[in-house]
Specification:
about 70 residues; alpha+beta; 2 domains; two-stranded antiparallel sheet; ATP-binding; ABC transporter ATP-binding component; ATP binding; ATP hydrolysis activity; nucleotide-binding
Length: about 70
Amino acid sequence: MSSLDVDLTLLLRKEILRLQEELAITFIYVIHDRDEAFSLATRILVVEYGMIQKTGTVREVSEYLSRLSDDSC
């Protein structure tokens, strides 16, 4: 959704969340935007170079990515 304007992006996010709740199903959503992933997900899988690096809740993955960022400084 990165190429969409802000209003349309927000509208689509709301619609995705509404559908997920209404249908009570799991969505697999491939995204490269961290903020967008955190706003839509309850669980996240991080893949790098074709290998799973981390799975967990938004909070767990956020903490993991923060530690990685701190370690690279």
